[in-house]
Design brief:
Layout (H helix, E strand, L loop, with lengths): L1 H14 L5 E11 L5 E11 L3 E10 L9 E12 L5 E16 L2 E19 L2 E12 L7 E12 L1
Antiparallel strand pairs: 1-2, 1-8, 2-3, 3-4, 4-5, 5-6, 6-7, 7-8
C-alpha cells in the first residue's frame, strides 16, 4: 500500500504543470559599430523555471552626417536562466530579421544573436536588467557583426 501511495504522489507531482512567468523590458543601450552609438527597444518573454522564449525589438537611428546607418532588429530567442533569486543570470540565443539603412541604401535580411545577462530585483515585481549580445547579420550589411550592451527596466508578472 505504501508503494502505491508513493507512486500516486510522484505521478501527481509530475502531472502538475510548472508555473509559467512572463516579463517585459524597456531598454536603452549602445551598439559598437560603426562607432559607439545609442539604441533603444523592448523585450517580452514567457517561460518556465529554467527555459523560456523572448521576442525583442531594437532600433538605432540613422545619422547621415556621421555615416551611421540605422539598425532595426526583431529577434526571437530561447533563454536558459537560473531559477528565481535576487540575481537571475541567463544565456540566450536566437534569430530573426534586421533592416539597416543609410540614405537610399537599405539591406533587409536574416540575423542571429547570442548573449547573456542578469536580472535583479529592485522593488516587488520591478527589476533591473543588464544584457550583452553579439549579432551576426547575413546579406550585405555595412557591419556583419555588431555588439550591443543595454540596461533596462524589467517588470515581472
Amino acid at each position: 500500500m505504501h508503494r502505491y501511495l508513493c507512486a500516486l504522489l510522484v505521478a501527481l507531482f509530475v502531472a502538475v504543470p510548472a508555473t509559467a512567468f512572463a516579463d517585459a523590458t524597456a531598454f536603452l543601450g549602445l551598439l559598437n559599430k560603426p562607432d559607439r552609438r545609442a539604441t533603444r527597444g523592448f523585450a517580452a518573454g514567457v517561460g518556465l523555471l529554467v527555459v523560456g522564449f523572448e521576442f525583442e525589438y531594437s532600433n538605432a537611428p540613422e545619422d547621415l552626417a556621421k555615416s551611421r546607418p540605422s539598425l532595426q532588429t526583431g529577434m526571437g530567442n530561447i533563454i536558459v536562466q537560473t531559477p528565481f533569486s535576487r540575481l537571475q543570470f541567463y544565456g540566450t540565443a536566437g534569430g530573426g530579421v534586421y533592416r539597416e539603412r543609410l540614405g537610399d541604401v537599405q539591406e533587409t535580411n536574416l540575423g542571429t544573436n547570442i548573449g547573456g545577462g542578469v536580472k535583479f530585483g529592485v522593488l516587488g515585481p520591478l527589476r533591473a536588467r543588464l544584457d550583452y549580445r553579439i549579432f551576426n547579420l547575413r546579406g550585405e550589411p555595412r557591419h556583419a557583426t555588431v555588439q550591443r550592451f543595454y540596461a533596462g527596466v524589467n517588470l515581472k508578472f
